[in-house]
Amino acid sequence: MTTVAAYAAPAAKAPLERTTIERRAVREFDVLIDIKFAGICHSDIHQAREGWGEAIFPMVPGHEIAGVVSEVGPGVTKFAVGDRVGVGCMVDSCRECDNCKAGLEQYCTGGNVMTYNGVGKDGQPTYGGYSEKIVVDENFVVRIPDGLKLDEAAPLLCAGVTLYSPLKHWNAGPGKKVAILGMGGLGHMGVKIAHALGAEVTVLSQSLRKKDDGLKLGADHYYATSDPKTFEELRGTFDLIVSTVSAPLDFGAFLSLLKSDGALVNVGAPEEPISLNLFSVIAGRKTLAGSSIGGIRETQEMLDFCAEHGFGAEIELIRADEINEAYERVLASDVRYRFVIDTATI
């Protein structure tokens, strides 16, 4: 066991504070990672405040982890000391179900082990990236290409793959009209990735406040959803809308923006249930869907794609003692576009 410094929420809705946690000794197939940077995801806030249900405390959030390998177990073949690596939202899965065998560990039917607020196969709670080090099985570690800066790569481990996966699955590319709903930590990555895939990209945001940023990051068009004319003008326009919004929406209004056979895919997860008039999907054979992160193989593919196209996340680097302030700023949509903790300050 190794004792490391970390920032943890001692109880639901309590401010995060500096503490120490125990990391397990490196096992045969484990990789010990010196964490350099950890992104702050809106999910961290949902879970630290029990917005998605009962949680495990103390909680060390963080599933956007970038660092350097400092030790490997004797059976490790994929990584060596000194490698630049990342860890995303999960650190294990059953590895035996059809989804795991297909590289879809995010949909493991046996239940995957989340990077934090989870319970490992050893029965111990998992602790995330707001810490100095982490020990992870090599099969749940990915390589960060040299073309990506570690701090800009960290948010790709959740925000990046959460957008890459549905954009690829629903065939965003040349000839397709894609809308990204919400221009935040997830949405800005959706704009970059959809543009790099060759789609015609529209941002649908509450206001035009971030229009210049959206166009600079690769959007072709930018509309305010607070303007009723937007819904008249864009009716029947899109092949695909990816919603990154974690607040309840008028889904009927957004489904009306799809072409026939179009899909509205949710990656933002509101805490409240939604209601829907089913004629919104029946008329036009439309799909209302959801998508989670990506499997390990797809996460590596996404990192390689981002490196090949020369972009990471747009980040604001903060000290660990600014985490609580950062949480409030995320809730106020006051970040462009992802906070990343410099873990050297823990």
Task: Explain the overall architecture.
- With 346 residues, the protein is an alpha/beta fold.
- The protein is built from eleven helices and 17 strands.
- It has helices at residues 42-48, 98-101, 150-153, 159-169, 187-197, 211-217, 228-233, 251-255, 279-282, 296-309, 323-331; strands at 2-8, 17-23, 30-39, 65-72, 84-87, 90-92, 113-114, 133-137, 142-143, 177-181, 200-205, 221-224, 238-243, 258-266, 287-290, 315-318, 338-342.
- Helix 4 crosses helix 5.
- The two termini are 19 Å apart.
- The mean pLDDT is 96.
> Helical segment tally?
11
Number of strands: 17
Q: Can you give the mean pLDDT?
A: 96
- H/E element order: EEEHEEEHEEEHHEHEHEHEHEHEHEHE
Give the termini separation: 19 Å
Which residue ranges are poorly predicted, with pLDDT under 50 across at least 5 consecutive positions? Answer: none
Structure class = alpha/beta
Shape: globular
User: How many strands, which pairing sense, and closed or not: the largest β-sheet?
Assistant: 7 strands, mixed
Query: Whole-number radius of gyration?
Result: 20 Å
- Estimated share of beta-strand residues: 25-35%
How much helix is in the residues?
Answer: 10-25%
